[in-house]
Amino acid sequence: MWTTDSWKDYELLDASDGERLERWGEYILVRPDPQVIWRSKKTHPLWKRADATYRRSKTGGGAWLENKLPTEWEISFGSLRFRIHPTGFKHTGLFPEQAVNWEWFSSLIREANRPISVLNLFAYTGGATVAAAAAGASVCHVDAAKGMVQAAKENARLSSLADAKIRYIVDDCKKFVEREIRRGHRYDAIIMDPPSYGRGPTGEVWKIEEAIDELIGLTCEILSDKPLFFLLNSYTTGLSASAMQCLTSLHLQSRFGGESKAEEIGIPITAKGFALPCGSSVRHVF
Predict the structure, then answer these.
(1) 156 near 129, Cβ under 8 Å?
(2) Interatomic CA distance for residues 87 and 63, integer angstroms
(3) Helix/strand/coil for 269
């Protein structure tokens, strides 16, 4: 499993009985997590002193209970800063487990010793975008949700990257890639963080199992003659890291060379001594 111990402002303090106990800066949150299938005793004192606890509703959705949180606040990862904004769907606007991938591709970008252009698809609030830009890459940030793109701009500003070479696009990712093929645009690296299920800005339905093979094939058409890396993330339980590695190997290795490696990504649990699995990633280095 790929994990990082570089976080200072985020910590997974404990996990038990379907819940995480987390520190986000100075605030303590309890959130549900279906991967926490063990029922160890909740002896950590902060279980009883959380600033907010998210509870799911039997009718769908959920809510933050005993909420003592501000509307939003900021945390840092090295030189990067992010605005945290808890939502009614338990999310906070950042997936801290992805920091292990930020570290990985940032090193590749810095060590390339040439200009690197990155396409970040399903780019959400821009964690990978600001990490790549901070490493010196030019980035095209694409997401179908206007609010997520605006949040990415704010995270870039907080990270002193307001003037970095970042292009922000609100669009359906597949349609954008198809237009880039026609335009003849090319990228040295692609980051892809697709949802399990979603809809584009005009109602297009996305199901990862049905769409990901075609999309990876399309992105091969916009890779440069000297590509650097390809990163594919998945939070879909039924889609294993090995299955995704088969996809990337079939599309990328035969055409460009290089090697795909796949692993679960996770977050160390301070009170447990092991890491919580939080999805999986495939890294292809050319």
Answers:
(1) yes
(2) 9
(3) strand
Quick one: 46 and 187 in the same domain? no
The range of the structural domain enclosing residue 208 comes to 96-285
Angle at 98 between CA 205 and CA 105, to 5 degrees: 105
Give yes or no: residues 274 and 234 share one domain.
yes
Give the end of a domain, one of 19, 51, 84: 84
Give me the CATH number covering residue 68.
2.60.40.1180
Q: What pLDDT, in 10s, does the model give residues 125-168?
A: 999 999 999 999 999 999 999 999 999 999 999 999 999 999 99
CA-wise closest residue to 109 among 136, 130, 140: 136
| Residue 34 one-letter amino acid | P
- Residue 31 in domain: yes
Give the pairing type, strands 62-65 and 52-56: antiparallel
* Structural domains in the chain (count): 2
Of the candidates 111, 120, 213, which has an alpha carbon nearest to the alpha carbon of residue 173? 120
Q: At what angle do helices 99-111 and 127-134 cross, to 10 degrees?
A: 30
Tell me which amino acid residue 68 is: K
Averaged pLDDT score across all residues of the chain: 95
DSSP one-letter code for 100: H
